[in-house]
Design a protein that fits this description.
By secondary structure, the protein is of the alpha/beta class. The chain is built from 23 helices and 17 strands.
Length: 660
């Protein structure tokens, strides 16, 4: 049983715990965990513990079977961002009678304050090691490293960068360790460790130093609250929603994906599996509405939803059909905000097309969707899975509330300093007639040899592949704009906890990565500068981009981003649908939608880096983009050939190669 309380007044704090323990005794609970949260600066956790110990309340229950957790006074907005219910309903005999136990109320990531209780245990002869044993943490930390870094062939003697891990892997590791142990790591901690083994030892040492008992976050978290009927939009959702309201016919935030499925696919089971996934993820069942009195937008989750699956037999011109679908505007006035099509070319050849609005879905969500779809299909196929057993009831709206309550005032100060004096540098446009909605995509690949060489550069200088490719993009932008002060935008995840890794939703933010590209600098010095630059920016990624623009007193419109008009992103490889007897592959790369003037999007898959330029065809011609592809590949090649050369030498060589 987990008993938790929030102290409201000094005179009731001890009596409240005493009452809780009396109820626990009546329920014959053999193991009790108490979480005390000091919500008043006048109430000292130290004094509370002394009072509790002096009354010897702990003597009422076997001291070896209970754990006392105390949370430090913190910023209340941050501290209670995951509090689900009101503390005054804690002692509820009616609820406890119905369920056989007291309702549990908790808060995320408690900081364990232990010293006072440790002293009390010593006086009373209690064996502290039975409560706090570092060995309990070892298998959990081991599992985190294995699960998150398994794709990189986890080698404990290797460093984080030498195994080719990405910044997303680092964030997952940081969040997972914090969720499971309470130990806070930074990106610098992960990047600077000489080996994964050293990083593990650092985590376990931190656990030992704070004398924390292992209590998994999942044991503290309640089942998703069902009483929340609506929630205000997150900052990124609010921006996307307002754009769509202002441009109701625009398909710019439609996310299309087409997957070819070749083999013995049971269409009926496939549609049922789709239904299970959609019902399992509340984000896919969101509907939006406006409170006209307050001019505020809200979202709620509906149970009654049409799956919107269209089955089409044959198609004469699939390319044209998909082009038309990509231009489809998904109405945000009613749920669902997605469209699904299954085109059957023949009995063993199908194309699965998913169109979904960005309000519900980010790039991270693709892999969650496809993994769950595969699991549901296989379970239905061998009768080991029912729709009810797969229903997860993930509390999506509570996770949105987490993002709303984040205090990013310190991060705004970082960005004010970082972006001070930045002027938008534009790549000169081609002389083209203006047309509406002319997004284009130009795909290209880096050879497996060049990919390996770039990875070697990253490992050699203890940085990520993103940093190496981003540095090449900085040089590319400097070359195109003829200015040393360059900046590009990138999209990052705002998933703050390891638990959010399995939730479909829109958890993203835009960052500005600004670099001073001096032609006197050696490439290696630019790489090292960008390693710190990108890491600092990533650690300050929570400020909503719209709020940042307001804080910097800049104007923003659809075609007037004050900080950048070029973007660079490294995407995770898509985990394709995994169905026995069915081969799944992308039907085609990219889509003809441009959300910025020019975007370079890359990913590493099958030992090659591949991706392409998304571009506004009103701004750049296809011929110009083809030249951009050649120039970027040349820059990447030059970096691998001589990382000690200066930027000026690299560009001089690019000039000579272009003339040839």
């Amino acid at each position: 049983m987990l008993l938790s309380c929030r102290a409201l007044r000094r005179e009731v704090e001890v009596s409240m715990v005493s009452k809780l323990l009396e109820i626990a005794q009546k329920k014959h609970c053999s193991r009790v965990k108490i979480l005390f949260i000091a919500n008043d600066k006048n109430i000292s956790a130290h004094n509370f513990l002394e009072s509790l110990c002096s009354l010897r309340i702990a003597k009422k229950i076997d001291p070896n079977t209970y754990l006392l957790l105390i949370d430090k006074n913190k910023d209340i907005k941050t501290l209670f961002r995951k509090t689900i219910t009101k503390p005054d309903s804690l002692i509820n005999e009616k609820n406890s009678t119905n369920t056989g136990k007291l309702p549990s109320f908790c808060i995320s990531h408690p900081v364990y304050v232990y010293k006072i209780f440790e002293n009390y245990c010593k006086k009373e002869g209690i064996n502290v090691n039975t409560l706090c044993n570092q060995s309990n943490c070892i298998p959990i930390v081991d599992q985190l490293f294995q699960n998150i870094l398994a794709d990189q062939n986890n080698n404990l003697k290797a460093s984080f960068h030498s195994i080719g891990a990405s910044s997303l892997d680092a964030l997952r590791l940081i969040h997972g360790i914090f969720d499971e142990t309470g130990v806070e790591l930074t990106l610098d901690d992960v990047y600077s460790s000489t080996s994964l083994l050293q990083l593990k030892q650092q985590v376990l040492a931190a656990v030992a130093n704070i004398q924390t008992a292992m209590l998994k976050t999942e044991n503290l978290l309640l089942p998703p609250s069902q009483h929340i009927s609506s929630q205000i939009l997150s900052s990124v959702q609010d921006a996307l929603y307002k754009y769509q309201v202002a441009n109701p016919q625009s398909s710019i935030y439609t996310m299309p994906m087409s997957i070819r499925l070749q083999g013995e696919l049971d269409l009926n089971l496939f549609v049922k599996a789709l239904g299970i996934v959609i019902r399992s993820h509340p984000a896919l069942r969101i509907q939006f509405f406006e409170d006209k009195n307050t001019d505020t937008y809200y979202q709620s989750i509906t149970e009654d939803i049409d799956l919107n699956v269209s089955l089409i037999q044959g198609c004469n011109d699939i390319e044209h059909h998909i082009d038309q679908l990509e231009q489809t505007c998904i109405s945000i006035n009613e749920a669902p905000l997605f469209r699904i099509q299954l085109i059957s070319l023949n009995k063993t050849d199908h194309i699965f097309i998913l169109l979904i609005h960005h309000l519900l879905f980010d790039g991270w969500s693709y892999n969650i969707f496809f993994k769950d779809l595969s699991t549901a299909y296989r379970g239905l196929q061998d009768s080991t899975l029912s729709q009810s057993s797969y229903f997860k009831r993930i509390s999506y709206l509570d996770t949105v509330n987490d993002t709303l309550s984040f205090d990013y005032s310190k991060q705004i100060l970082f960005w004010r300093k970082k972006l001070d004096g930045l002027k938008l540098a534009l790549i000169p446009a081609d002389d083209l007639s203006k047309q509406e909605g002319m997004g284009r995509y130009q795909h290209f690949e880096l050879s497996s040899h060049l990919t390996k060489e770039l990875e070697c550069i990253a490992a050699r200088f203890n940085t990520t592949l993103f940093t190496v490719l981003g540095t090449a993009y900085d040089i590319f932008l400097h070359y195109q704009t003829n200015t040393p002060d360059v900046a590009f935008g990138t999209i990052v995840t705002t998933r703050n906890t390891h638990k959010q890794a399995s939730i479909i939703g829109c958890f993203i933010n835009a960052l500005v990565l600004r670099t001073y590209v001096s032609e006197k600098l050696n490439i290696v010095d630019l790489l090292k500068a960008n390693q710190k630059n990108y890491t600092d920016c990533l650690q300050n990624r929570q400020v909503p981009f719209g709020d940042l623009i307001e804080a910097m007193d800049n104007a923003y419109s659809e075609h007037n981003n004050p900080f950048y008009h070029a973007m660079f992103m490294m995407q995770e490889p898509i985990v394709h649908i995994n169905i026995p007897g069915v081969k799944a592959s992308k039907y085609r790369e990219g889509y003809n939608i441009a959300r910025s003037d020019i975007i370079l999007e890359l990913q590493k898959e099958s030992r090659k880096i591949h991706g392409g330029f998304y571009f506004n065809h009103n701004y750049f011609s296809t011929t110009r983009i083809n030249n951009f592809v050649k120039e970027y590949i040349l820059i990447c090649h030059e970096i691998t050939q001589n990382v000690e050369q200066s930027v000026a030498q690299l560009l001089l060589h690019i000039h000579s190669l272009k003339k040839e």
